[in-house]
Design brief:
The complex is a heterodimer. By secondary structure, chain A is mostly helical. Chain A has 19 helices and no strands. Helix content of chain B is 31%, strand content 35%. Chain B has a single domain, classed as Alpha-Beta Plaits. Classes of the chains: A mainly alpha, B alpha+beta.
Chain lengths: 425, 242
Amino acid sequence: MTTPTVQRALDAAFRQEWGRVVAALIRRTGDWDLAEECAQDAFTEALRRWPVDGVPQRPGAWLTTVAGNRAIDRLRRGARGSELLEQAGREALSRPDTDEDAMPEPFDETDEIEDDRLRLIFTCCHPALPLEGRVALTLRSLAGLTTAEIARAFLVPEATMAKRLTRTKAKIAAAGIPYRVPPAHLLPERTAGVLAVLYLMFNEGHSASSGAELIRAGLCDEAIRLGRALQQMMPDEPETMGALALMLLHHSRRHARVGGDGELITLEDQDRGRWDKVEIQEGLRLLESALRRRQVGPYQLQAAIAACHARAGSAAETDWREIAGLYALLEGQMPSPVVRLNRAVAVAMAGDIAAGLAIVDELSGDDRLERYYLLEATRADLLRRSGDQDAAAAAYERALPLAPSEVERRYLLSRLQEVGDRTAG
Amino acid sequence: MKYVLFIICSDGLPAPADLAVMQRECPGWVKEMEGRGVRLLGRELELPETAATVRVRDGETLVTDGPFAETKEFVAGFDVLECADLDEAIEVAAKHPGSWFDTIEIRPFMDGLELGEAAQAFARNDDSAGSAYCLMMCLDGTPGSPEEEAAVVRESKAWGQDLKARRLQALGHPLQHKDTATTVRVRDGETLISDGPFIETREFIGGIVVINCAGREQAIEIAAAHPLARHHMIEVRQFCSE
């Protein structure tokens, strides 16, 4: 019988070890599907054995060894196995007449295992793979989500997701994408690529708001968990710390940003008492140690902006001048009309609404923002603050048809009503 | 692994100034990559308007002027590489001046590409065996029935053997599916990598064949004899001679 203690150990092992087991097996066999199947087998075996034999002292080593033995068995049986087996044998995977009932030898290659997980994450996030495939494969092979879970999180049929995963893995093999940590000269850009995948994963979850979308919200936890793992693997990389800090600081507001009816609550109106203090503290600590390294990048800057909000006891205490300065720096590193629009808000909130509106006006000519509802919504908001309720109402109305979801539409409607009331009053 | 780099011009011909840089820098790239043993061969193609696209329908050969894809983009030439992995192929592509102004599409070959005597002669720009033409096998993505596919494989093999026996083929090999393509561009010193082929049409290049023959007419005739011409189409274009 599975006791709660054993169940907890199994759950924890799954969370912590799945990626390691898969990563080690891919290195040894080069076969992604085989690696996943054998990792699954090893966890099934643990479910059977741990309640009887007790939880092994080093669950990860136990699981990797069992999965490795299973890989040998499968390869021996498989028709195409001999070649792979020979390769695996060269990697010293093979042990004579493996006895699965014997407790696996503990094996001491901690560094190798850490490297394996890094190899895996860099390969999953290789820029030559389709972006959607990178995210899906990272969730499947590192986080251990099932295809069905990933499909639900991305709101696509399971068959679609299965095809996406298959195609992505097929490209790795057919196009010769190397299974390795990139060499030093490629490391900075490839690390940025991994962070982009994690942040995309996080945002997918973060944009989920209602109860029906809780599975999507779970993506945030996965992204943070993978971010932590990456940070442990590359402890000196400031942008990795910055990205993790950014995700934590955003995540800390999750209970405050959506109201009881699923409505969006702006930063200004959020109940700051509901922000997660522990995550804020961790985020601030990470950001501080990242900034000490004096290699500021876009994630650190965005985290620094989120930190300004996190430190402010109330909306009124927000240091908007500092935020406007940070957005200017961010724009220098990552020129984008969306960043500029955010700078416009910060400039206005720092006291100069006219200057903020001037930036919004400049952006109106930018084709890239043509269908972007936040351009008009921002203009509306700044006009409302400047007291021009008629112009604000007109801008809210222009924003309405562009709003991407019901949540945003409801928010805009409530604002529209508010300025309408003021005009009437 | 062996890869082909397709040099793709995206908006008609490159600007004269860009073309000048490419012409100046290309020989250095060739020298470096041959020195490293990475570049096996490659050549520029004549302009796309000189191409002929060949189909055979109901036993009749249909020839249209121009390249297979009716887009502004066209294949300007290709290089065949032997690389350790895709990262090396990307690095080599990013050093090719073509990627600075235009686009390079990297496609892995199916296993088993061997470069024989005739391919070596082509690599040396030795056209003594006849004018060099490129046949690009353009698939439209619709698979035939299993029997049809099997027949195509069987007949392709016979077609290749016949060409070799007549000393007409320098090189010929299928490419991996277009889903394995990677596009490389270099802009402002940054290497931009993306998944998939650059020319987003239904048709894609499924294989390349280099032949040495008497001229355009014979090249079209050879293409029309290939089983793929019956189901898909084949673009025929001459290589530039040195």
